[in-house]
Design goal:
single chain, 238 residues, alpha+beta, Maf protein, eight-stranded mixed sheet, 28% helix, 22% strand
């Protein structure tokens, strides 16, 4: 009986599968006009599990996002789940750190220590590089009872010699955005939301989901006309 109540109560809710405070805030702001209610893992009362560290072991952002969405879908009490995997791909480093962006320096610790170690590692790796072109890439996976959808967004720029600004999170202060002509570390949240890899992947996802109206998803609204990379995956891991 309680399982039925859980499923009914979850109708129209979207679980964002992250414990990263900065990412959760960014996704919540982007999703708020579209979904009836958006929760993160803390809101949903899903405790951290060491097994989560092994989820993102794929070779691509798409594989990792889908694996994460499926993992938390099984623990979501019937909620639809959105998960992402994103990272920084630097031309001079052959696309690194790529899917290892979060673990690039191999550091462990709090949400301030790890990004700082990653930034130092990146600047060290680029110390003698003249080509500092880079792009942020984000894959977003959405899984519910009927389908699994994956979309990809990208934004281009270059890596700065020193960080600029303190906005955003992760590598943002080191990334000079071609679209904004400023670093993501100095850009306002609103400006970043217009051009970020995550915003572009999300816009593509929302466009896909609105093709099939479902509870909790606003049927109409502004969606940027973006180049889209998306596909529908099997709902199970098979």
């Amino acid at each position: 009986m309680s399982g039925r109540r859980d499923r009914e109560g979850a109708a129209g809710e979207l679980l964002v599968a992250t414990r990263n405070v900065g990412k959760a805030a960014e996704l919540r702001a982007l999703l708020a006009p579209v979904f009836a209610r958006v929760l993160d893992l803390r809101d949903a009362g899903i405790p951290s599990d060491p097994a989560e560290d092994a989820i993102e072991d794929g070779a691509t952002f798409q594989e990792n996002a889908l694996a994460k969405a499926r993992y938390f879908r099984a623990r979501s009490a019937g909620r639809a789940v959105l998960a992402d995997d994103s990272g920084l791909c630097v031309a001079a480093l052959g696309g690194a750190p790529g899917v290892r962006s979060r673990r690039y320096a191999g550091a462990v610790g709090d949400e301030a220590a790890v990004p700082a170690a990653n930034a130092r590692q990146l600047l060290s790796a680029l110390a003698d590089a003249h080509d500092r072109r880079a792009e942020f890439v984000c894959a977003i996976a959405y899984v519910d009872d009927t389908e699994a959808v994956v979309t990809v967004g990208r934004t281009s720029g270059r890596i700065l010699d020193v960080p600029q600004g303190a906005n955003g999170f992760g590598y943002d202060p080191l990334f000079w955005s071609d679209d904004l002509a400023e670093s993501f570390g100095t850009a306002s949240d609103a400006a970043k939301a217009r051009v970020s890899h995550r915003a572009r992947a999300l816009a593509a996802l929302v466009a896909r989901l609105r093709e099939r109206p479902r509870p909790g998803i606003a049927p109409r609204g502004p969606v940027d006309d973006l180049e889209r990379e998306s596909y529908t995956a099997p709902t199970s891991g098979a």
